[in-house]
Design a protein that fits this description.
single chain; mainly alpha; globular
């Protein structure tokens, strides 16, 4: 292995350590940036990353596009590289950021995928969950994701002390370690309390709220499997992930008259523009009703 190759890998590892321990980025962000920057490290080959020019980055983008990589994925990789070179600048390992002036490729607007209200009603009322602790846990996973709109990572980071039953709310640790309180509906509150009583039989050594079948803290794969399994019972949409339940929560709240600012606070968005995408879904619903209902159609 050449000296440049070894040095490139050392630079990447230093960057990942910075993200994880200094910037305290989420596990998902660290993994995503690691994959994207590592891909460019491989592309650079024997050349030192500190000697890369903007033209070489543009050539890489062209190569990615020819391989059929989507504009959205390419933009994500450019963001990762921009952050990587910003780190190298701050640590005085390079003077320039070759990704600084590369503009994002145009992407088609992608509306959030969500489950229809009647499908969620079917899931709540007609789909059977196993009559054991795992079934209770799985039902609560679906209910918390849908009724609070929290993210998968936020769900996994819940602890027994996260809940305030007197005020009927849950404290969530969101992106950039920002805390927020989300209200809980009465029926959901009762389900949580019942789960906590049952949980005592299976896990005592830690305070993580959700646990695996072996009593260990729950993990990403478990949450994905549960959501995919039960959404498959009621919908044929391609994507069946925890985030779809978050989108469903926001869309249904908006369609039922909730103000955008309140939805923003529930979801933990940093700014209102991130929440406004749900208005497009609502507009499509209005158009559909209009087309079906207007006497001149």
């Amino acid at each position: 292995m050449s000296n440049n190759n070894s040095h490139n890998k050392e630079l990447l590892q230093s960057f990942l350590n910075y993200l994880q321990f200094e910037k305290r980025s989420s596990k998902h962000t660290v993994t995503s940036y690691a994959n994207d920057v590592a891909q460019f490290v491989e592309y650079a080959g024997e050349q030192s990353l500190t000697e890369i020019h903007e033209k070489q980055l543009r050539n890489w983008i062209v190569d990615l596009s020819k391989q059929g990589i989507t504009a959205r994925s390419i933009n994500r990789k450019v963001v990762a590289l921009r952050s990587f070179y910003s780190f190298l600048q701050k640590s005085e390992q390079t003077k320039t950021n070759p990704a600084a002036h590369i503009t994002a490729l145009k992407t088609a607007k992608r509306l959030p995928v969500f489950v229809e209200v009647n499908q969620m009603d079917t899931l709540y009322n007609d789909v059977e969950f196993d009559d054991d602790f795992a079934g209770l846990r799985n039902k609560l996973i679906i209910a918390l994701l849908y009724e609070t709109g929290m993210r998968r990572a936020e769900l996994l980071n819940l602890h027994l002390h996260s809940f305030d039953f007197e005020k009927r709310q849950v404290k969530v640790l969101g992106k950039r370690n920002k805390e927020r309180m989300i209200p809980l509906l009465p029926e959901l509150t009762e389900l949580i309390q019942y789960y906590i009583q049952e949980r005592k039989k299976y896990a005592e050594a830690h305070t993580f709220f959700f646990i695996s079948d072996k009593g260990k803290p729950a993990y990403e794969g478990l949450i994905y499997r549960v959501v995919k399994k039960y959404l498959s019972e009621v919908t044929t949409i391609d994507k069946k992930s925890p985030h779809v339940l978050r989108h469903s929560c926001a869309t249904h709240l908006l369609n039922n008259g909730a103000e955008l600012q309140h939805i923003k606070e529930i979801l933990g968005h940093a700014n209102l523009s991130a929440t406004q995408i749900y208005t497009h879904n609502s507009l499509e619903k209005i158009k559909e009703i209009y087309r079906k209902s207007h006497p001149r159609n």
